[in-house]
Amino acid sequence: MRYPLDCEESFDRTLLFWMSRYLHGKLNSLSNRQVKDPDALMRIIADLRTGVSSIEELSRLAKAARNAGLIGINTYYKPLEKLYRYLTALGLRSMKEIDEELIADFLVSATARLSDATKKNYRIAMINFFGYIDKQNGESDGSAHHFGIELKNWGGLRGKSGTKLPAYMQESEVERFIEAIETYPFRADVAARNRLLIKLILFTGIRVGEALQLKTNDLIPDGDVYLIRITGKGNKARIVMIRQAHIKSYLREWLAVKPCDTLLFCNKKGTPLTQAYVSRIVEKILMKAGIRKEKNGAHMLRHTFATMLYLKKKDLVLVQEALGHASLDTSRIYTHFDKERLKEAAGVMDEIGKK
């Protein structure tokens, strides 16, 4: 039986639904040779068919299945439990906002201290889970959403080709992109909002989810800058700054008409925007600017900010603090763009060569 991808009233409930369906399928497909208590396993399967109300209940059932003798279930469930907490903390609105880049980001942070074997298991669990949803979801009109999660270029394992360098804009492309932000023909009622939102992400490197969670009072004027209070992953707070000149006019224009009281960004109904909507805006602006990247979504703006920050300041700790990375290793990817340092390496044998 097929189910609509967003089949529950909230993202949290929808993700929990798919996880419980997936776990139910795994209990029926994994080897049961070591099962010591078949009756207990039958009760667990029945509970999953009925449905669960919380991640804690689902975790309890997974643990009970393992205790009953279905040893392999943890290989698939434990990564998904961490994924649930990661994605729900981001404040997503739809399953369609999940893409391979977001899953790769999760794997980087979730497996940093794990063995290569466990990292491989996490990757397999992600591919398996989203492959299951690809086969099971379907809308009333016959259409179906396809995640296509492959993670072929995820560099979490030593001995592989390494982490794939993220897509980003060169400085000349950033200039064209900013010009396109100013000239793109948005509808009059959302033009100030959209320009304010895209500039905030580009000029501060905050995550799209972080931008969409901003409240109006999170922007605090301080001299010629705004201090912006960010609530990041795991509810970790940090401060970023942006020059008032970049956004002041758009902020004033949007505040005068926005229909939501607390949130900074919302639609005409007063409800939050989605990450998928923001990515579509970015793609349209990129197209207008004549810029084409492998990854055209809004997350590419964060990579662009981080790359520019490292190249101009050469301070990896500053990149970590500005982007809210939990580990310096996550920030280290941006050192790959430092051509000047690479030139130094290229010239290390010059003097010997001359002799």
Question: Can you tag this structure with a few keywords?
Answer:
single chain; 355 residues; mainly alpha; hpI Integrase, Chain A; 2 domains; three-stranded antiparallel beta sheet; 3 strands; globular
Gross morphology is globular
Estimated radius of gyration = 23 Å
Q: In which range does the helix fraction lie?
A: 40-55%
Number of helices: 16
Instruction: Kindly provide the name of the CATH class of the largest domain.
Output: Mainly Alpha
Give the termini separation: 75 Å
Order of SSEs: HHHHHHHHHEEEHHHHHHH
Give the count of structural domains: 2
> What is the correct CATH architecture of the largest domain?
Orthogonal Bundle
Percent range for β-strand residues = 5-15%
What's the arrangement of strands in the largest beta sheet?
1-2-3
Derived structural class: mainly alpha
Major sheet, described briefly?
A: 3 strands, antiparallel
CATH topology of the largest domain: hpI Integrase, Chain A
How does this structure look, described?
The protein has 355 residues and is mainly alpha-helical. It folds into 2 domains: 11-136, no CATH class; 171-340, Orthogonal Bundle (hpI Integrase, Chain A). Helices cover 54% and strands 5% of the residues. Strands 1-2-3 form a 3-stranded antiparallel sheet. A hairpin with a 2-residue loop joins β1 (219-222) and β2. α1 (11-29) runs parallel beside α3 and α8 crosses α12. The longest helix has 21 residues, at 116-136. The N and C termini lie far apart (75 Å).
